[in-house]
Design a protein that fits this description.
By secondary structure, the protein is mainly alpha-helical. 75% of the residues lie in helices and 0% in strands. Helix 1 packs antiparallel against helix 4 and helix 3 packs antiparallel against helix 4. It starts with 5 loop residues before the first helix and ends with a helix.
Length: 105
């Protein structure tokens, strides 16, 4: 695996975990927006991006570009909630989006 992927993989892993936690914490709670739906999509995007980078796929950059877009959306949605888990999720999503954009550049 390329070491150039390491920071992005770590950001995706953290985002995946924080989105999963947000999803669990939001279970049964009402939401005025797409949280926790966005967390489901963000988890999948991060997981696929990690797999593509680990495989040194020629499409890793494109997956990471899409992952960044999904993370931006999730950060926007979760940041609108005052819950600590939502704020933590939004922060991880922003960091992941930043790393994915750098990887895709």
């Amino acid at each position: 695996m390329k070491t150039a992927y390491q920071k992005c993989i770590e950001a995706c892993q953290k985002c995946l975990v924080d989105c999963q936690n947000c999803l669990v914490e939001m279970a049964g709670m009402k939401s005025m927006n797409d949280c926790p739906k966005c967390c489901v999509e963000c988890i999948d995007a991060c997981l696929v991006s990690i797999k593509m980078m680990a495989a040194d796929s020629e499409y890793a950059a494109e997956y990471c570009k899409l992952c960044a877009e999904i993370c931006d959306w999730c950060a926007e949605q979760c940041s609108q909630h005052d819950h600590e888990h939502c704020q933590k999720c939004a922060e991880s999503c922003r960091k992941c989006a930043e790393e994915c954009r750098q990887m895709a550049a």
